[in-house]
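Sequence in, structure out. First:
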Amino acid sequence: QLRLVESGGGLVQPGGSLRLVCEYPGYAFDSYTFGWYRQAPGKEREGVSCINGSGFSTYYADSVKGRFTISKDNPKGTVHLQMDTLTPEDTAVYYCAARRIFSVQAMCAVPKADYWGQGTQVTVSS
């Protein structure tokens, strides 16, 4: 069964950093576009950052641009989201997703995917 597994969430103080990891069976997902989404309590799920199959095309939401970095390691079957300078507004459940779509912008525009991970909680608080 094809699965996405996230890890790396936790509690961090404002200004701190976290690195999320999404593991996938590489042989099946190398050509997929991947995305990180987040959902805060009472809010809709939103696209944070997306990356294409080769890893050379990326997209970032304005709210995280300059603070978050997405990367993909096909041989290892992992997608990472490095989150720096975190603020309380970044608090949410973060989900990894994969979809057969060409455009990273389109991937991040709507919370639609072929596969979803189970989510990992990120809490930014002092």
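Second:
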Amino acid sequence: QVQLVESGGGLVQAGGSLRLSCAASGRTFGTYNMGWFRQAPEKEREFVAGVRWSTTSTAYGDSVKGRFTISRDNAKSTLYLQMNSLEPEDTAVYYCAAGTPYWSGNYGSARDYVYWGQGTQVTVSS
């Protein structure tokens, strides 16, 4: 069982930056693929970014490429999402997610993840 707690959301003006954090419980954080997703009102949950447990390779949704950066600190059991050049369209609840241990398959879809945080609200004003 993994518990995930997001923080760092808030209100920011367009063009600004925010850094989200996701603190994970347990000592096996380094064995999980980790991801960020977001969901805006009346929209489906969207993949934002993911990072593998083994190679730390990363993947990004098309709408955030070049603006967002995902990273992880296994020693601190923490996942990060650095968000730059924010746009009003980035407004959503952002969720942290963890997959099954040692998974080497896909990590770009919600179905690839098992554990979810409660989410943190990000609001970008125009």
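Remark: The CA atoms of residues 8 and 20 lie 5 Å apart.
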